[in-house]
Structures are given as C-alpha cells and as structure tokens.
Amino acid sequence: MRVLLDEERALEETLGATKAEAEAHALAWDAFYDQSAMRGLATGNRPGKPAERKQEILTPQVIVDVCAKLWGRIELDPCYCDGALTNPLYSFTYPAVDALKVEWGYKAFINPPYKDLKAWLAHGREQKFEQIWLVPVRTHRKWFRAWRDSLGAYVEMDPIAFVGYDQVFPAPLMLGYKGKKATDFLAAASHLGSGYSPDNDVPYISPERSRELMASISGLNSVARGY
C-alpha cells in the first residue's frame, strides 16, 4: 500500500482533479518515490522531518529468534551496525562496507537500508546461500513481487517495533525466506503473522493453531447438536 503523504493529499484536494488527472498525479508521485523504495518512510523526507533519517534501525529480538530457531545462529549480517542483536559469525558493517559489491558466502539475515531496497533485493537474488529478510511490503512494484515470488516462503507480519522505539513501524513488513526449508521457516516464524509459500496459496497454519481451530469447531458442533 502506497503511503499517501500529507502534501499529496492536500494537493489532490486543491486540484479538484478529474479522474484522469488524479490518476496521472498518482503515477507521477509513484515514479518520483520509486527512485528508491520507501524513501518517504526510510529517509524522513517529509514536512517537519529531518532531511535524512538514519538507516541503522536495529532488528528486534523476535526476528533474531526466528533465525536462531531455523539455523542455530546467523552466519552473516551483510548490513550490520553497532548495537545490533543479530550476533553473526561474520558481518559487513553498514555503511562502511558496501555489501552489494561482494558475494555472500554464508546463510544471511538481512534488514537492509530501506531507501535502497530495490538494489538489495536484486543482489540477494544473485546469492546462492539461504537468506532471511526483514523488509517493508512493496507489492505495488513489479520488482518486489518478482523477489517475493522467488522466495521459498514468507510471513506477512503483524506490527512490530524496532529496537529503541516504543511505537510499531508505520508500514507493513514482511519476513522473507530464500532456501529449501520453507516448512521449517514457516513453523519458526508464522506466530509473527500469516505465513505463505508461493507454491501454495493456502496460508500456513502451525500444528498448535490447527489443533486450536479443530477444538473450537468441535465445540461449535457439540453446541449445535445440543450436547
């Protein structure tokens, strides 16, 4: 879902635009903000906000726990920064090292700088090892959908707050998995939202949740029968 900025809304209201004009205006804004994904949220280029918002936003522990459950430990964090909870075996420190110019030779967890999301996702698709990504949802972009559909599985997440923030992140987030252990990933991560695999449009339901649902259905059936 594209975030409608305050200046966009005011301009559209002022225009009193026809449908065609409104559509053209929306396309123009999309083209501008597609220069780098999530630029409004990622960089803070909005009225009353700093000219450039910091990109070193630390991953919450619940995401690190998913990686630990699947892998035991994160092998590589290609956009590591001081204070991160990821505790990888290897890391490239952002922004000192440009991880988009090197190979990722290990299982990697990536919480990329959102202002450069498109470039990071493209580089990730070229890498051979398993990956887990924490990214903003950009399903109105073909390049994002192509990346999403290349995954083994993903979770459309419930709102979460990043380390050091009281409020949840103000846009939808996705936890994506590239690899051959889709079922294990979904078992580890689906408590954070709704899990899917591109090969199966039916949402993943954990065994525990399945038992809860069956119990509730049995209860309803019993009531209906007068038991």
Protein model, in words:
- This protein has a domain at 61-207: 3-Layer(aba) Sandwich (Rossmann fold), CATH 3.40.50.
- Helix content is 38%, strand content 17%.
- It is globular, with a radius of gyration of 20 Å.
- Strand 3, helix 5 and strand 4 (131-136) form a beta-alpha-beta unit.
- The protein has a 6-stranded mixed sheet, with helices on one face. The protein has a two-stranded parallel sheet with strand order 1-2.
- It contains 8 helices and 8 strands; from the N terminus they run ααααβββαβαββαββα.
- With 227 residues, the protein is α/β, with parallel strands linked by helices.
| Extended strand count | 8
What is the CATH first-level class name of the domain at 61-207? Answer: Alpha Beta
The CATH architecture designation of the domain at 61-207 is: 3-Layer(aba) Sandwich
Q: Average pLDDT value? A: 79
Main beta-sheet strand count, sense and barrel state: 6 strands, mixed
Distance between the termini: 47 Å
Break the fold down into its secondary structure elements and pairings:
Blueprint: H1 6-15, H2 19-33, H3 39-43, H4 61-71, E1 76-80, E2 90-93, E3 108-110, H5 117-126, E4 131-136, H6 142-149, E5 153-157, E6 173-178, H7 182-189, E7 193-197, E8 200-204, H8 207-225
Helix pairs in contact: 4-7
Descriptive labels:
alpha/beta, 227 residues, two-stranded parallel sheet, single chain, Rossmann fold, six-stranded mixed β-sheet, 8 helices
Task: Provide a concise account of the structure shown.
This protein has 227 residues and is of the alpha/beta class. It is built from eight helices and eight strands, in the order ααααβββαβαββαββα.
